[in-house]
Each structure stands twice: as C-alpha cells, then as structure tokens.
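Quick one: structure for this chain?
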Amino acid sequence: MAGEAKSDGSQSGPKLPQKRFFRQRAHVNIFNDIPLEYPVRPSEEDWSKLYPAYFRPMEDSQTEQAITEAKRPMSPMGTDDQVPQAKRGPGIAGSDSEISADKLAQVEFADIGCGYGGLLVALAPLYPNKLMVGMEIRTKVVDYLQRRIVALRGFQNDLVKRKDAGESVEWVDVRSKLKQEIDALSKPLDPETEELHDNGETDRLVPGHYENIAAMRINCQKYLPNFFNKAQLSKIFVLFADPHFKRRKHKARIISTTMLAEYAYVLRTGGIIYMITDVKDLYDWNVKHLDAFPLFERISDEELENDPAVPCVVNSTEEGKKVARNKGSKYLACYRRIEDPAEQ
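Got it. Here's what it folds into:
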C-alpha cells in the first residue's frame, strides 16, 4: 500500500524519515552570525522551492511584473477561513463562488520555532487554502521536516494516482478529525492518534495534499521582516519556546518587546498570535509583554473554543504530547492584532 512507511529499505515509494537520526540539542545562540540565506526584501524570496504547486520558479533577474506572475498560484485559491470539506487538490475552496483565479499565493501562517513539524502537519488539512511555513534554526530538525513533507506529498501523489486509476481511496473527514482533537484536549493522545500525529496521513487523501506546508532554516529574531511584507500573515504560532531560564538569557526569549514589534508589523489587523508553554514563569513573562504591547489584545477563552487551530496548538507538537504524557500543565494565551490608531 502507498501508506506503508517502512524503515527497513523495502519500500519502493515515499519513505518517512526517522526522527532518531535527526536529533539536535535544543539551544542555539541566536546572536551568533550563522551563515543563512535570506532575501534583501520579501519580494525577492523564491517560494517555488518550498511550494512548487503554488509558485512558478523565479529567474535570477526579473522585472516587478515577472515577479508578480511567478507568485500566481497554479491552482485557484479560496478565501474561506472555515474548516473546509475534503476537496481534491491544493487550494480548492468549499464552493465555486469562493474560487478566485487571480488571487496571488502568499504565506499566511508562520510557526516560529516549528521543531519537527507536528503543528504544520495537523493544520494542513484544516486550512488547505492557506500556505504555512515552519521556521526553525536547527539544521538537522529542518532537514527532518523538509524530508517529512516531501514524503507526505509523495504518499498523497500515489494515492491520487490510485484514485484516478479507479481504486477506492478514502478521504479524511477533517471535521470528524477536528472533533477528535477537541475531545482529546484534556488527556494524553491514544497511541494510534499519537502515531498519526508523528507520521501524518499516509493511507488517506487529505485536502491540500500537504502542498500547503513547508519548512525553512531561519533565525527569526534577526530576519523575519526579510521574508514577510507588512500585514501579510494572519496567524503566528509560538509553541513551547525555549524558556531561557537564566536572567542574562531573557533577551533571547522569542516573546519580547522588540519581537512583538516585528510580529505586529507582519501580522494583519485581526491576525492572531498563539502562545503556549508548560513553564509558568515563561507564560507570565509572555502575558506581561503581550498585555503591555499596544497593538495586541487578549482573546477570551470562550472565543477560543470556536477556533479550529487551538486543539492542534495544544495537542500536535512533540513537546505538547510529552507534557500530556507526563501529566503536566499547559498554559495557553492568544492575542489579536488590533488596528494601529496612528494608521486610522
């Protein structure tokens, strides 16, 4: 079967990487001058390497019009933010009225410090019309996630071919999947569900076919505005970040006054920053800084109950599953980007 992700070399099709070969220490000095590739401005980033189904390759030298044309999606993208029904192909919305052939593809979700990609893989079927990028500084971890995404796309491609050949291939019911995630919020995931989180869907078709997720190596605390235009993003995720316990290391925390200014720049009005941690001290620090920042307001728990991304934020990451297994506490806070009075 296409979904048999074997690790003994006997599989001829796509093959999932094994996480144990890609382990790397958690701490990287973000203030070091690490050799990284980054664009001078967002318009110069060639996203076709990460999202080949949505972007045409950019040449070394192009006019502004050519750059715009390179960003035109190869399949139309919808605008529905609701959890979509399963549809074939990346970027197909729930109804023809929501499809716009002229809507330019752009990344809208960013997972800062994405780790091994559990959140991206969980969100991909729920938001097949949204491009999401995981941003991680650790080389081995990025390598693992990139290989994982390539394998998942390969599984989906094989399933599509089997379906086209007349075989019966099951679609994932994303609404039922989301309900299962919500029901599991207060308890550890069962072994079958946890394995699915670790691997992704390999036996069933999913909306978007994982073409809408990607990973890149980047030091977000230095180069975030190099990749995203003002008000480009609608969601930013900061999940189980390094707490940097020592006081002299607090300046390296991913939530700070300086970083919040950058998040506010790349987030559109109404966009949301999701923050979760199992460290109460870090949670208090994050809430203190977010409450004090004038362009963010906290979202109520009642409103979050209707947000389909929240169960994935709580359940999907490797750290989140580890906390649940150890019966630890998770501290969640989400904030909405509000309009800047100076721009009214």
